[in-house]
Amino acid sequence: MATPPSAPPAPTAGLPPELADATRDETSLRRFLQGLPGVDQVGVEQRAAGLATRSIKKASKLWAIDMAISMVDLTTLEGADTHGKVRSLCAKARRPDPERPDVPQVAAVCVYPDLVATAVEALKGAPVGVASVATAFPSGRAARDIKLADVKDAVDAGASEVDMVIDRGAFLSGRYGQVFEEIQAVKAACGDAHLKVILETGELATYDNVRRASWLGLLAGGDFIKTSTGKVSPAATLPVAHVMLQAVHDWHKTTGELRGVKPAGGIRTTKDAIRYLVAVHEVAGPQWLDPKLFRFGASSLLNDLLMQRRTQLEGHYSGPDYVTVD
Predict the structure, then answer these.
(1) Is the pLDDT of residue 2 over 60?
(2) Residue 6 — pLDDT band, cuts 50, 70, 90?
(3) How confident is residue 5, by pLDDT bands cut at 50, 70 and 90?
(4) If you ran DSSP here, which 8-state letter would residue 292 be given?
(5) Of 1, 65, 80, 283, whose CB count within 10 A is highest?
(6) 134 Cβ contact list (under 8 Å, min separation 6)
(7) Which residues are catalytic?
(8) 325 phi-psi bin (left φ>0, alpha ψ -120 to 50, beta other)
(9) Which CATH superfamily is 45-312 part of?
(10) What is the pTM assigned to this prediction?
């Protein structure tokens, strides 16, 4: 039976005292989250815009493209998904450009729970993770026992990563303890699988809420905080990513732990991806330029990265006929 929403969150072991105190009860958690410094909206948007204008040299651009490819969670989350489509996606994940074996493999393939077993079989022997959305994705509107069953189905089928959605209604109503408990319960249900906590920032309305939701996800044990499901507009934006990258940077300063960030939705071009990599380096730090700590949730992005990679190496633009199109 799900814990009543009014129950306080359980203390989190291993946290510094100032953070452990925040998880002691509902009141302490609310006081901590509401006491976080407000986000300077003008400042964060100006900084994001400024970093987005930076250019990089040709040699660095090729490195950035390969880094971005290695960070892609190649995703298909449509009602019309089939086992055949997932197998094709996994083949692309294994070898993104069939004519160029030096292209890095992507980080993971992300699918619905009922297609996890197909992805696991198709990726057998490859260093590519299998991620699954869960917890009544994308709405998150289900009873907790149903959400946890969703997670169990994915993990039992072999998912190495789980992308959960928070209850935005509970969060926006100030029921932080309920959201905290649910993330903790999902984390426990994940076992050895990594947990990415989707905030659905397009529904959170303010940067202050994004900061609070980021810290809530980290306090509750999320290995990654993720912007969006990709089903709500706006999805990922650079200013929102800045707020989340600052959160994981500050978390590391306070706890010594490294947690990841995953922007998802609306990132379609190499130029977009490089802008995010610049933000990662400047806001969180160079340590986060690693697929273990930064991912792109994307479907079409990989195609553009592959075309731009060929352009860098061959000196002319390669069109979509030269890469597989999803």
Answers:
(1) no
(2) very low
(3) very low
(4) T
(5) 65
(6) 113, 147, 150, 151, 153, 154, 162, 163, 164, 186
(7) 163, 226, 262
(8) beta
(9) Aldolase class I (3.20.20.70)
(10) 0.93
